[in-house]
Amino acid sequence: RKRKMNRLMTLTAALLLTAATATAQTGAEAKVARGIAEAHAAMSEMRCPYTLERKVKMLADVATESGTLTYVKATRTLTLASATADTTIMTPRAITTANARGRNTADARRNAALRQMLDIVGACFTGDFAPARQAGTLTTTDGGATTTMTFTPKDKRALRHISSIELTFGNDDYGLRQMTVWQPGGDFLRYTFGRKKTTRQANRAGGGI
Questions:
Q1: What is the mean predicted confidence (pLDDT) over 1-27?
Q2: Nearest CA among 122, 67, 120 for reference residue 91
Q3: Can you give the pTM of this predicted structure?
Q4: Are residues 55 and 41 in contact, defined by beta-carbon separation less than 8 angstroms?
Q5: Which among 1, 19, 33, 167 is most buried, taking Cβ atoms within 10 Å?
Q6: Ramachandran area for residue 101 (φ above 0: left; ψ -120 to 50: alpha; else beta)
C-alpha cells in the first residue's frame, strides 16, 4: 500500500510539473507581454493603416487589399475597415463582417478556432497571453529589432481552420508589426501594419496625459 501511495504521489507530482511547464510563461514572452501592457496602459484608441495579403491555393496570385485598423480599448473592439472589401469587427465574443449586402456575425463561444484567434488578437493590446498558452503552444523568438510569437492550437476543431498564428512585434514600442494566420494546405492571411496614431485617455483631472 505504501509503494502504491508513493507511486501515486510521484505520478501526481509529475503531472503537476508537466502542466506547469506547459503553461509557463517564458522570459521572452514575459518581456513582450509587459511591454505591450505598459505601451497601451494610457491609450484609449489606436488607428493605423494596414495591408492584407491573402494566399488561396486555388489562385496563382496573392490577393492584396488595404484599409484602416481601429482599436477601442474601453470595449476591446477592433475594426478592420477595408478600402475595397468587407469591414471586419472583432470583439472578445464575436466577429462581424459587414458590406453593402448586410452583416454576418459569428459567435466565438461556438467556434474554437474563432475563439482562439480572438484571444490572440486581444492579447496584442493587453499583453495577456495566458489563454493562448492554455489553448495551445506559444513560442517566442527575439530577433533583435523584433520579437515573433507563434501560436499553434491543440484543439482538433481549431486545427481544421488554423495551423498557426505568427505575431511580430517591434522591440522599440511593442507595437504589432505583422500578423500571419496560416491555414492547412499553405493558405494564409498576412496583415502588415503601418505607423500608429493613438489617443490617450483622460486622467482623473479631466486633462490629457
A1: 44
A2: 122
A3: 0.78
A4: no
A5: 167
A6: alpha
Backbone angles phi, psi at 137, to 5 degrees: -100, 135
Count CB-CB contacts under 10 A for residue 167: 23
Q: Supply the pLDDT for residue 132.
A: 87
CB count in 10 Å sphere of residue 58: 5
Alpha-carbon gap, residue 138 to 108, rounded angstroms? 21
List CB contacts of 129: < 8 A, sequence separation 6 or more. Answer: 25, 29, 33, 123, 138, 149
DSSP 186: G
Task: Tell me the C-alpha distance between 81 and 47, whole Å.
Answer: 11
158 and 113 Cβ atoms separated by less than 8 Å:
yes
Q: How far is CA 139 from CA 22, 23, 25, 168, in A?
A: 11, 11, 10, 12
Give the number of other CB atoms < 10 A from CB of residue 40. Answer: 19
108 in Cβ contact with 96 (< 8 Å):
no
Residue 160 is which amino acid?
Answer: R
Q: What is the pLDDT of residues 167-195, one digit of tens each?
A: 999 999 999 999 999 998 889 999 999 99
